[in-house]
Amino acid sequence: MKKCWKKLCQYFAGDPSISPFKLTLFQSTGATVLASILAVIAYNTVGVYYAGIWYQLGVTLVIASFVAPIFLFPSYRTSGRLQRANAIIKAQATTDHLTGLPNMLALNNQLKNLLTDDKNQTAFALHFLDIDRFKQVNDSLGHDVGNELIIETGRRIQDWVGNAGFVARFGGDEFVVIQFATSNELAATHFGRELRVHLAKRYNLSDHEINVTASIGTALSPFHGTNQEQLLKAADLALYKAKETGHASCVFEPRFASEASNRRRIEGILRDTIEKGTLIPYFHSIVQAKNPLQIAGFEALCRIELPDGEILNPEQFIPIAESTGLILDIGAHMLQQACIECASWHPDLFVSVNVSPVQMIRSDFLTTVQEALNDSGLPPYRLELEITESVLINDVEHIRTTLERVRALGVQIALDDFGAGYCGLHYLRQIEIDKIKIDKSIIDDAATVEISRNILNGVSLIAKQMEITLVAEGVDDITKAEFLSKGERVHQFQGYLFSKPVNAVNARRMQEILPSQATGSNVIQLPVKSNDRA
Fold it and tell me: Cβ contacts of residue 237 below 8 Å, gap of 6+?
């Protein structure tokens, strides 16, 4: 009874989901029946007293009821057009305008249907995919070619997946693929691998031949989520991990969520710290190899102290700062503070500041350096900028031009972590370097491993011929220091044997130590208060 009443109400209300023909027929019939009933009632009640008038009125109502469909016909036509228009709007609302694939709304509807269908066991894989280095295509070939690449990528995905899944464009260069009836991680991984191979085939777009690869993050239902939000988040986290680690694809693991939460926490801390200007500069001493009691300068290191006393080290927040662009503000602030602090030291001391690849590429770095020098009054020759070999593999021409202009100011350039994984010798031919800092991994093995010792000796010979200062990083015991001192392999030492990174107050106190005050052999004994954190 309730269903019948509900259906009648839909007809009377003109529900657009009902066929226009059925709706008009019902309304016309209803109007006819209602008019006839009213005519009969009116005649039987008062028509006996006013037979002439009510007879005419009754006849008029009956005739009007039969004529009503004629007047309702335009409504029928309008309703039909409205229904077709609604169908078009619905299609447009669920279709991506560029690729013609289903969009996010259609994806959410599909996931909702899969997860709420009682007949379905919600066993499927959700693949989150994006094109690697897509921004480079846009920047080098233009957005039109970038759009063509997105269209062709969507077509290839749809052609390869076929009826085995559901394909949607999530946005930008990101796509989502639902792999039906898959609860096995191995099968999902194989599916993603084969899809990547299919997408890696050469693209011919607007007279350009393009080779691209894709990264994929995978989540399995119901193991990694029971609703669309959880599954999409899990697949997105897996994609982030795949790109972060350099792997082609990755399946979600629960730890990814806690890592993401920690990243958000650290990002919030960074933004708050930058806003309040509470970044803490620490300083790590660099000493002369011939006389380790003589400090040559300090390397400035960024530290962030939390309210509970915890100190965040650079390896915890620098990658996050670089990925979010916050490194630009952090780097500029650290450079400013390091120059101001060094200006108060002995005039023979220098300060060394690390430079991120992001700073070199995404900012007016030369202006940043000039402002730091001008505001602090520090002579340029007392500032040393440390770049890693990874800086040089991004855009050598741009980096070389920037560094040449910085060196023209009188600033020294140091190549940090030399030997940590890139072919640094290649870049020594292209960029003028004043100092090389040999990575700790080479220093640790130089005394005992022949290949490391040969590398050290070779770099030492090259540095001597090119008149480049050589620094040994990670010198943390006397054995290493004594070995490195033989044959004058290096010019300067840096490591925990001489001191740990200290705050500005203790850095000034270290400069006041005289050789006669030092105890032990060639080791500086730093008087650090118990409440100072190194």
Answer: 217, 252, 256, 257, 260
Dihedral, 394, 396, 399, 403 alpha carbons, nearest 10: 140
436 in Cβ contact with 468 (< 8 Å): yes
Q: What's 380's DSSP letter?
A: G
CA dist., res. 26 & res. 517, Å (int):
106
- The Cα 85–Cα 251 span in angstroms is 42
Q: Are 355 and 390 in contact (CB under 8 A)?
A: no
Q: Tell whether the torsion through CA atoms of 404, 409, 412 and 415 is positive or negative.
A: negative
pTM of the model: 0.67
**Radius of gyration in angstroms for the set of CA atoms belonging to the chain, rounded to a whole number:** 37
How far apart are the C-alpha atoms of 403 and 397, rounded to whole Å? Answer: 10
At 79, is the secondary structure helix, strand, or coil? Answer: helix
Contact 176, 161 (CB under 8 A): no
Cα separation, 150 vs 478, whole angstroms = 59
DSSP string for residues in 221-250: ETTT-SSHHHHHHHHHHHHHHHHHHT-SEE
**pLDDT tens by residue, 287-331:** 998 888 889 999 999 888 777 777 787 888 888 888 888 899 999
pLDDT digits (tens, 9 = 90+) for 156-201: 999 888 888 899 998 888 999 999 888 788 888 889 888 888 888 8
Could you please report the per-residue DSSP string of 423-492?
-HHHHHTTS--SEEEE-HHHHHHTTT-HHHHHHHHHHHHHHHHTT-EEEEE---SHHHHHHHHGGG--SE
**Total Cβ atoms within 10 A of residue 458:** 11
Q: Is 369 exposed, middle or buried (0-12, 13-18, 19+ CB in 10 A)?
A: buried
Using CA atoms, how far apart are residues 130 and 90, in angstroms rounded to an integer? 27
Residue 450 tokens read as: 């022949």
Tell me the CA distances in angstroms from 233 to 161, 217, 260, one per residue in order. Answer: 22, 10, 11
